[in-house]
Amino acid sequence: MKKYKITHKVTADFIAEIIVNEDQIDTEINDLKEYKKPNSKFNFTMLKGTESVTQTTYEEYDKNINNSSKE
Hints:
By secondary structure, this protein is mainly beta. Helix content is 0%, strand content 38%. It is elongated. The protein starts with a strand and ends in a 10-residue tail after the last strand.
């Protein structure tokens, strides 16, 4: 029986949170320093109901890697 891989491209809203020490940001001038944009150090939570599928594809799935050097 054939297998298919289904891929959905999804957009959603997230909350990104991190706890930092006071010396890691400057509250006097509102400078978040290295925390201005979320990165892998942040914890992410998707807001329920905000997800939207923007594109869907499917393709035949084969566990074997397509290696053209095989004879």
